Amino acid sequence: AQKITQTQPGMFVQEKEAVTLDCTYDTSDPSYGLFWYKQPSSGEMIFLIYQGSYDQQNATEGRYSLNFQKARKSANLVISASQLGDSAMYFCAMRGETGANNLFFGTGTRLTVIP
Amino acid sequence: EAQVTQNPRYLITVTGKKLTVTCSQNMNHEYMSWYRQDPGLGLRQIYYSMNVEVTDKGDVPEGYKVSRKEKRNFPLILESPSPNQTSLYFCASSSNIYSNQPQHFGDGTRLSIL
Questions:
Q1: Cα B39–B40–B42 angle (5° rounding)?
Q2: What is the mean pLDDT of residues B1-20?
Q3: Are B56 and A101 within 8 A, CB to CB?
Q4: What confidence score (pLDDT) does residue A36 get?
């Protein structure tokens, strides 16, 4: 069975600083995908970044990067140079086992950027 | 503009009164899904559809029905809503669940069942 764990219910970061949001996962499938989504206070779900289990390099998208440590089963999101607009809920999610069609979500981390 | 459209965005109703939340996507995606979001629980999948006339249960299907008669539409039906179905609902679509393509989410529907 798959499981996603986000152990930080809330995080604070100073504007312009970097912040790491933790995500660990559990799966027995050798092939899987990991996603991060941002949910601002307006409620919509915004895709940020993707990491495939066979990708050799850590994924990056602008100020977002994914610190993928396969042996530790962790996929932490790093946001560099935080901005006030980064204040939001962040969800880590994992695509299910090969042949399954579910996207398993963690419980989320609420990030607050302090001016 | 590529998008997933849900209606209504907000609804307050009473126990037992049937309701339908519509979902439409304009990206010709094969895969569509419904999630509910509850505080402290993240998003949980209700139902999904791999293509027209192909639907299957997710993790929390009890009390819900879906249909997929057309590729673009995937309505969520609550035949007899109850207060424990008060939640924020999201419809999502993607071209291929096996690829690295992310699911595109609608803006959400906030349901309150009194």
A1: 85
A2: 94
A3: yes
A4: 97
